[in-house]
Amino acid sequence: MTLKKFLNNFEEYFCVWTLAIMTIVVFVQVVMRYVFANSLSWSEELARFIFLWFSWVGASYAVRERSHFRVEMLVDLFKGASRIWIEYLVLLIWFAFSFFLTWYGTKLVLFIRGAGQVSAAMRMPMTWPYAAVPAGCALMCVRLIVEIWKLHKNGLSHAESGEVRATELKPSGDTTEPLEGGK
């Protein structure tokens, strides 16, 4: 595996591994609680923290895959150049919001680090779970810059390439190929 491929797919690998680890931790907790009648004090907290990281890094992966929820009604009213400008506007607002969360999330992490706050069960510094927000949003910012560049380079062909509407799917549901006459 090349470094470029790893960096391009980092979020996907990260989400797969964190989901696997979280599943194992929860499974061990269930076995310990119901088979051995002795629960682990730290497992629920660890699973929660892993889920935080999974969610925020997964949000960045969803940007790459263009699978975030979108309200298409307004965008579909526009065609041609005006639609491209609306797409730019949406991506720029999204980038600004992600940058805001990165900036203030980092400030919050630094504040918590200075306060020395630790988690209840594991006694782990709370900077680690809180760092999921600025880390995930920073990754989203990078992915949004890539999306803005792709929109600039390829125009609407890129903006529409990631969209497959449910009404365009074949009735079998086994494939994501559009029906004839679809976009």
Automatic annotation (TrEMBL):
GO cellular component: plasma membrane
Compartment(s): Cell inner membrane
The keyword Metal-binding is annotated on this UniProt entry: no
Keyword Transport: yes
Source organism, top-level taxon: Bacteria
Family annotation (InterPro entries): DctQ, TRAP_DctQ
GO MF annotation list: transmembrane transporter activity
Residues passing through the membrane, by range: 12-34, 46-63, 84-106, 126-146
Any GO BP: C4-dicarboxylate transport
Pfam families for this protein: DctQ
Tripartite ATP-independent periplasmic transporters DctQ component domain span: 22-151
Membrane topology, record value: Multi-pass membrane protein
Family stated for the protein in its record: Belongs to the TRAP transporter small permease family.
Protein name: TRAP-type C4-dicarboxylate transport system, small permease component
